[in-house]
Specification:
Helix 2 links the parallel strand 4 and strand 5. The radius of gyration is 19 Å and the shape is globular. The strands form two sheets. A four-stranded mixed β-sheet has the order 3-6-4-5. Helix content is about 25%, strand content about 20%. The protein is of the alpha+beta class and about 180 residues long. The relative contact order is 0.21.
């Protein structure tokens, strides 16, 4: 389910029924909450915490093999990051890009740096100041699966490693964060 413009959802649960709710939003730590409905109508508020000091894999920020261009389907997720940064003007983020293991280590490091730059340039082109975002390429040094050099893997497994993650630094510092309803 997605929230409406006021940050609300309506979900029918039978009286006495148990359900588990998981709340996720880009840039925030996910929350899981067990609900037991004891009355016919029930309201609950869930406050989310900014994911300071955590890495978040951006969904669908993938790249074609041997390419660094932002794919059209990936722009949607980067637009969420842009909105998050506009809603929280005191935050900075680091984008880290990764490759699969095919190709030399040196080539993959250069390719991941080009991918990080491509993602950063996209975010800057949407009005975010360049001082608030930086990109780092890690090549194939942080694979998510067993697809190391010489391992036989499917294209889907390789694609899983071609990704961009966001990291929100400032862990341990007090900052004001605005959470906008419906985003």
């Amino acid at each position: 389910l997605f929230t409406d413009d006021d940050g609300e959802i309506v979900y029918d649960i039978n009286k006495g029924e148990r359900t588990k709710m998981k709340v996720e939003a880009l840039g925030y730590l996910p929350i899981t909450k067990d609900l037991i409905v004891g009355q016919v109508d029930m309201t609950d508020s869930i406050k989310m915490k900014v994911a300071l000091g955590h890495s978040i894999v951006l969904k669908n920020i993938y790249y074609d093999f041997d390419k660094s261009e932002i794919l059209e389907e990936s722009a949607v997720e980067l637009d969420k990051l842009v909105n998050f940064l506009k809603d929280n003007p005191s935050l900075t983020v680091e984008l880290s890009s990764h490759t699969d293991s095919r190709g030399s280590d040196d080539y993959n490091l250069k390719l991941s740096q080009a991918r990080a730059k491509s993602a950063v340039d996209y975010v800057i082109s949407k009005g975010i100041d360049s001082s608030r975002i930086k990109g780092i390429g890690y090549g194939e040094t942080k694979l998510l699966n067993r697809c190391f050099n010489g391992e036989e893997c499917s294209e889907e497994q390789h694609r899983e490693n071609r990704r961009t993650e966001i990291f929100i630094p400032n862990a341990g510092h007090g900052i004001h964060v605005k959470q906008t309803k419906g985003k």
